[in-house]
Amino acid sequence: MIMKRFLLFLLFPVLAFGQDQYRVTALPTGLRDRADAVIRLHETTFTVKSAGEATETVHSVVTVLKPAGDNHAEEVVGYDKFTKITDFEGTLYDENGTVIKRLKKADIADFSSYNDINFYDDNRYKVARFPKQPSYPYTVEFRVETTTRNLMFYPQWQPQRADAEAVERAAFVVDMPPNLTLRYKTFNLPEPTKTPGSEPGRVRYGWQVENLAARESEPSAPPRHELRPAVFTAPTAFDVQEYRGNLRTWNDLGQFYNALNANRDALPDEVRQRVAALVATEKTTAQKVKKIYELLQEQTRYVGIQLGIGGWQTIDAKTVATTKYGDCKALTNYTKAMLKAAGVPAWEALILAGDDEPDILTDFPSFQFNHVILYVPDGRDTLWLECTSQTNPVGYMSDFTGSRHALLMTPTGAKLVNTPAYRPADNRQTRRVAVTLSETGDATA
Prior knowledge:
Elements: H1 5-11, E1 37-50, E2 53-64, E3 74-79, E4 83-93, E5 99-102, E6 108-112, E7 118-121, E8 124-129, E9 138-148, E10 156-157, E11 165-176, E12 183-187, E13 193-196, E14 203-212, H2 224-227, E15 230-234, E16 237-240, E17 243-246, H3 250-260, H4 269-278, H5 285-299, E18 301-302, E19 304-306, H6 317-323, E20 325-326, H7 328-341, E21 347-351, E22 371-378, E23 381-385, H8 398-401, E24 405-410, E25 413-418, E26 436-437, E27 443-444
Parallel strand pairs: 1-11, 7-19, 18-20
Antiparallel strand pairs: 1-2, 2-9, 3-8, 4-5, 4-9, 6-8, 10-15, 11-14, 12-15, 13-14, 16-17, 21-22, 21-24, 22-23, 24-25, 26-27
């Protein structure tokens, strides 16, 4: 990254770290306990140049104590048309801090993010991995610098990312220009240190931690950020391509999302005619929704195509009608368009989906979502539609999106709402069987 490392040392002089300190014998007493690896040093500096451009540098040094920590010998860095990797370096040391190997360009592989879910997107990854070592411990060092022109997202900082990691020293710095305000939310940390930035008028927000011991894993524990130090950051104003937005409120986020996806719900005439015929004899909203949802499941399938403003702008409904596939945004938009043709209003809802995902931070407006579902108002009732599923019954959310907050795009503005909560009684199945035993040991049930 463009920011010089000596500026970080001015803010946190305690983090000055010489190569001779990479020796394993220099580890503080107790950090090896229960640890697969020790984060010797982790510095992250995020420098915001404007509402539409920023640079980030990450310098990490990790001592791997046992095979379970070998994942630290690999560094994966994502990039796309908005983000460029401007520096990628790595060094491998033995337990005495002696250099074994330095990364060369040929050691860094470049991959598409294509997989069996994402058919196509504009994301790629550079991956560097040191070879498996014959003995432990050893130490790896990585330096990565990136520039981005998509400031919808600011970094999250969680210096202790796994239970079996100990942290010797870590620091996080955000350098802001005079005309922009940093929004942040901290857990298990004091307020940041504020110092003059890299240029006149700029402000640097800094956090640091030292000597965090590894912890035992606890099943069903609260989200990691509630138990360990964490900082969530977000912009106030931001630019991405020709679009501008801000994140002061959830409604601001909704307005930006609606602007990205406006006028993309026009349907071909033949689809509108088919929808009209399909629901012509149905009297209730619920019956119309059921027919259209079943048509969606019969004729389309989910394919991840993450294109358009960093994957947040939907493919238009006419294209989905032709190709018969789309991602969550596209299929939700297509379903909304078919319901509109049937005279049934429906609204998109952004949500953080996943069987084990925690709920969003409801008091911190920001892009915390990874999925889009559909909300259909029906008088005093409500129908929620998972438009990517070909098997879900109409209105069923499951634990993938149930029992959490969603950002609903209503005609009067965006607001947080709760998705259906599934109680134990809702998931109970009861079977009663009468069995008749004969004297010979046979039975009928």
